[in-house]
Predict the 3D structure of the following.
Amino acid sequence: MRRLIKIPLISELPLAINLRMDFGDKSKVMEVLNRAFAGSVVDKRIAAAAIREFEGILEDLYTRPPQWEMVTMKREEVDKMREIIKYQDKKIKDITERVNRMSHGDQPEHPLPTDKDREDTNRRLYLADSFRDIYDKEWRAALRELTSIYRWRPQEAVYALMRVIRNACDLCINIAEDQLDKLLLGMEEAMVDPINGGNGGKMKNLFKDHMNVYSDGMKIAEKYAVQYRNDRAEIAVPAVLELFMESKLKMIIDPVKLKRDLKAYITKVVELVWLMTSLHPPMRLYWQLQTERVNTDFFDFYDRKGDFVNQTVWPAVFMHNTGKMIYKGQTVAM
């Protein structure tokens, strides 16, 4: 299947010119120019062929006197046309790269319903934007603090900041799974035993006798539990942050030595990771492990280029586990 590209109007180009050339009715150049003036879609192959044809004509103009019955152009107009061709060629390459990235296979063959739900999608994009802002602000401030006040080497500091994200993901995934189980079980217990639901340990025997009721009820309960948690996830942030400080932080740094910028970074990371994880299905943060081949579809290089990962600096963000990528991550190459 041919890929189509949009040729911008001549008025949109940086150096618009007026030219009169008798290329002939079947000329590729004339075909592209006619469509460009109309703002139409042009096949990439035709556009590339037209560019090559026009470059050949321009080369003739520089090597032999122009035939005035064929062309009426000044030398400076030829130079301007070269600039337009360069501009157009770059635009074609940029569009082609974007199309290739979109069709690389990072979207699911059968997208989950959340991909089509505008409200849910907007929420995910908002959280992804907020998470990216952490990298631009709190991450950089925490990195400066670790290297200047703590006297850590830059590589150690980058590694520690990424460990905060990885540990936050592990913690939040476990909490989110347990929380949803508790919500579902609580709703179902209250329905099966409205008098003593959740008390006295009587539910196990009831569920053994009525497993079909329990199973069907859980499916209904899940729908409402998921929506309830999506709407109320923010209120759990303080408890999740407290648990992170108590159980995860000591593996990264001594909590007693925690200073302002690093604390602000940890607080923002845990909050956003929790909000992304508590969605259903959860958003995905993806990082590569050391010695893996760098996936340039999902990561940009933090400083130097290379074939293999030294360490992930910032994770790539996906709509969900089988959804499209929202933002690329950063990686340090070997």
In short: The first helix runs from residue 28 to 38. Residues 1-25, 66-73, 102-116 have pLDDT under 50 and may be disordered.
